[in-house]
TrEMBL record:
It comes from Shimia aestuarii. Residues 11-204 form the Lon N-terminal domain. InterPro entries: Lon_prtase_N (IPR003111), Lon_prtase_N_sf (IPR046336), PUA-like_sf (IPR015947). This is Lon N-terminal domain-containing protein.
Amino acid sequence: MIKAADLPDTLAVFPLPGALLLPRARLPLHIFEPRYLAMFDDALKSGGRLIGMVQPNEVPGREDNGLHRIGCVGRITQFSETEDHRYLITLTGVSRFRVLSEVEGFTPYRRCEVSWDGFARDLGPAERDAGFDRTGFMALLRRYFETLELSTDWETLKDASDELLINSLSMLLDFEAEDKQALLEAPSLSTRRETLVTLIEFALRGGAGEDLMQ
């Protein structure tokens, strides 16, 4: 269990569009670019084995170093090396953070000064969603999967805890990068579930296009 005192003021960050990591969830990554291989090696040498996941925010004229302001740090909890020296790793989400500024230095990867203020709840136990209508949610989700011709293990989803179900779907479903960011920044599990439902309903309506609900 990582405590607040263990969280550093500076993080190596991995800007990856559409990649969402949430506290206590697991994100598999394929590391092959030389700069990120160097980042991975340096993270393994450190005590915390931490890597910050943050989405790029390439908006002309916006002075934010091309990064969204909020990301999530993960701890390397599993990895394997391929024969051609790439890595398959798993990050387990620890806490969200706020990017303060980018650190200039000699590393080939990006590093940022960060703040953990406002995210103390991320370090606690799994959240519960007291207002979760699981029956209605599962019916909506089944319609979404059938419409998009997706398959899943429904028994596993049915047995998953509130947090595991909502966060796993938030990470895995194919939403736009800005939608993923909204899911990340949701202040509570219930708010994330409400956002997720809105995104699923929007997709079923065909977004701005024709109606998908037949």
